[in-house]
Amino acid sequence: MKTASALALQTCCPIRRNLVEQFAIAARLHAEAVVVLSHAVPAVVDFAESCNAVEQARQECETAGAAFREHVATHGCWDYNPGAPVH
Questions:
Q1: What span, in angstroms and rounded, lies between the C-alpha atoms of 75 and 9?
Q2: Measured between alpha carbons, how far is 55 from 65 in angstroms, rounded to an integer?
Q3: Alpha-carbon distance values, 65 to 11, 12, 27, 40, 48 (Å)
Q4: Which of 79, 85, 78, 59 is nearest to 16 (CA)?
Q5: Do 86 and 22 form a contact (C-beta atoms < 8 A)?
Q6: Is this structure's pTM higher than 0.85?
Q7: pLDDT tens over the chain, length 87 residues
């Protein structure tokens, strides 16, 4: 049986928290890039440049999400999992 402190370490993984924060920031930046594109004034904003910014933000979001999911899958730190390593 795991102690309360071991369980807390497992469910409060600092790497997981960092990765999910990076994912959230990337998702927010992607959403903001889409909003900028949707409100762009054609005479002021370059369409291709705005589309490239949206695509770059989308890719960064996907990369951050993949890193988060990979860590959780390999580390088992999403929920309490008796078989997962404690760090």
A1: 12
A2: 15
A3: 19, 18, 9, 28, 25
A4: 78
A5: no
A6: no
A7: 555 445 444 457 899 999 999 999 999 999 999 999 998 888 778 889 999 999 999 999 999 999 999 999 998 887 655 555 545
Q: What is the pLDDT of residue 2?
A: 55
CA angle, 78 as apex, 74 and 80 as ends, to 5°?
A: 105
Closest of 26, 16, 21, 14 to residue 63, by C-alpha: 26
Cβ–Cβ contacts within 10 Å for residue 23, how many? 20
CA distances from residue 16 to 13, 34, 36, 64 in whole angstroms, order as listed: 5, 27, 30, 11
* Helices 47-75 & 14-38 angle (0-180, nearest 10): 160
Provide the pLDDT for residue 40: 85
